[in-house]
Design brief:
Layout (H helix, E strand, L loop, with lengths): L17 E6 L4 H11 L5 E8 L3 H11 L3 E4 L5 H10 L5 E4 L1 H9 L5 E4 L7 H9 L3 E4 L2 H18 L3 E3 L2 H9 L12 E8 L17 H5 L8 H9 L1 H14 L6 E5 L5 E7 L4 E5 L4 H10 L13 H4 L13 H12 L3 H17 L7 H12 L8 H21 L4
Parallel strand pairs: 1-2, 1-5, 2-3, 3-4, 5-6, 6-7, 8-9
Antiparallel strand pairs: 8-10, 10-11
Helix pairs in contact: 1-11, 2-3, 4-5, 5-6, 6-10, 6-14, 9-14, 10-13, 13-14, 13-15, 14-15, 14-16, 15-16
The protein binds nicotinamide-adenine-dinucleotide (NAD) and magnesium ion.
The site of nicotinamide-adenine-dinucleotide (NAD) has 28 residues, from helix 1, strand 2, helix 6 and helix 9.
């Protein structure tokens, strides 16, 4: 029988146990992370849990994982959190507000941070963890899109190791281990990100006019939070991932390709100058990606079964349809433009997706609003956090106004 438990076991609470802060603990990535962590009790444990506003779900996670700290982003929810923890007889200390989450991410009670807050709201805590030199398991791709240069620079300066928690980027991260990283360029010709194509693959633009939020979040292969599910349906998710890959692996957008692969078993590929193409394969379950990040460089149990290619049979590939799904083209353009353009792309998309999920705008308005924002706002140089946050705020404002002016809003 293969040895599937290569980790040394320690007593729970041993001093050398890896202490992990899970930010966005109640979400899809957060709960998958906690599932993997719980499989390795003693060797790693969740010491900090943070969430946006769901106090009951956060308390339930505290009962299961017994962290030292729990934080809720909404300051108005401090008392319910504190009282709920006390009523559950937990020693977990309650905190509230974004600043408290930043302080916990940077503080002494964790050495690893799973950054799994959704949207630009996660930038501040992600940056705090990077500046504090933590091992950063980065799921919050919007932080990289909004402030990729700044975040990677600060992480490098503080010695923070960034491990991507996105199936495609984890695949590339793994495939890149087979080259000599000390040589500039290291023989990489291009990166190929795979995309499932989302729930509307194969539809024309006209067919997308009347799709509903419920149809958009029903992803055929992955179970994810509502925002990233809509991003997958518009292909903006792949666009954000192109920008994410650029920052993580220092490859220009022109050498990052996208290939639609409906089975979602090949998670991405790296092509080398010698003609070798390396791919990473696995079932579409983020616990594999999280186990890579949590255990790295060790391989640890994730609870995910191996891949039975015979059972799956066919692997198919096709080109993305940039006419039906213009968000991917807009993301490449924003990356090319640089400066504040990716921040504008991201902010307009967040506002538009939120309005779509609330039933206030149609599906096709999402790319239209993003395109409008990119042409309305100048892509100024943006190498400071203040400049990026100002572009983000301004874009949210003009996109909100544009939505209010839409006939059916
Ligand atoms: P989700 O909606 O399921 O969960 C989001 C989490 O963030 C929740 O715990 C919520 O309480 C928390 N949150 C929201 N606003 C907050 C705030 N202001 N402060 C603190 N916490 C806040 O989303 P998800 O699918 O888990 O995605 C999380 C991130 O991971 C996103 O950036 C997404 O793009 C990325 N990601 C997700 C997947 C996936 O399979 N779900 C895959 C790759 C990348
Ligand atoms: Mg992905």
């Amino acid at each position: 029988m293969p040895d599937t438990s290569p980790l040394p076991r320690h007593d729970a609470g041993a001093d050398d146990a890896r202490r992990i802060a899970v930010l966005g603990a109640t979400g899809s990535i957060g709960t998958s992370a906690l599932d993997v962590i719980a499989r390795h009790r003693g060797w790693m444990r969740a010491s900090v849990l943070a969430a946006g506003s769901n106090v009951q779900a956060l308390i339930a996670l505290c009962q299961a994982h017994r962290p030292e700290h729990a934080a809720i982003a909404d300051p108005a929810l401090y008392i319910p959190l504190r009282d709920g923890l006390r009523d559950a007889s937990l020693a977990t200390e309650a905190h509230a507000g974004a600043e408290a989450i930043d302080a916990l991410a940077a503080g002494p009670d964790c050495d690893t941070v799973v950054a799994a807050v959704v949207g630009a709201a996660g930038l501040s805590s992600t940056l705090a963890a990077a500046r504090a030199g933590k091992r950063l398991l980065l799921a919050n791709k919007e932080a990289l899109v909004l402030a990729g240069e700044l975040l990677t620079r600060e992480a490098a300066a503080a010695g923070a190791e960034i491990i991507p928690i996105d199936s495609e980027h984890s695949a590339i991260f793994q495939c890149l281990r087979s080259r000599d990283a000390s040589v500039a360029g290291a023989g990489v010709r291009r990166l190929v990100l795979t995309a499932s194509g989302g729930p509307f693959r194969g539809r024309s633009r006209a067919d997308l006019q009347a799709v509903t939020p419920a149809q958009a979040v029903a992803h055929p292969k992955w179970s994810m939070g509502p925002k990233i599910s809509v991003d997958s349906a518009t292909l903006m998710n792949k666009g954000l991932e192109v920008i994410e890959a650029h920052h993580l692996f220092d490859v220009p957008g022109a050498r990052i390709d996208v290939l639609v692969h409906p089975q979602s078993l090949v998670h991405s590929l790296v092509e080398y100058v010698d003609g070798s193409t390396l791919a990473q394969l696995g079932l579409p379950d983020m616990r594999t990606t999280l186990a890579v990040g949590l255990g790295w460089p060790r391989r640890i149990e994730s609870g995910v079964a191996g891949l039975d290619l015979l059972a799956h049979g066919r692997l198919e590939f096709e080109a993305p349809d940039l006419d039906a799904f213009p968000c991917l083209r807009l993301a490449w353009q924003a990356l090319e433009a640089g400066g504040s353009a990716p921040a504008i792309l991201n902010a307009a998309n967040e506002i538009a997706v939120s309005a779509f999920l609330q039933g206030r705008i149609g599906f096709l308005s999402i790319p239209e609003l993003v395109e409008q924002a990119l042409s309305a706002l100048p892509d100024t140089a943006a190498d400071t956090l203040e400049a990026l946050l100002a572009a983000d705020a301004r874009c949210r404002q003009i996109t909100t106004t544009a939505i209010a002016r839409l006939p059916h809003a």
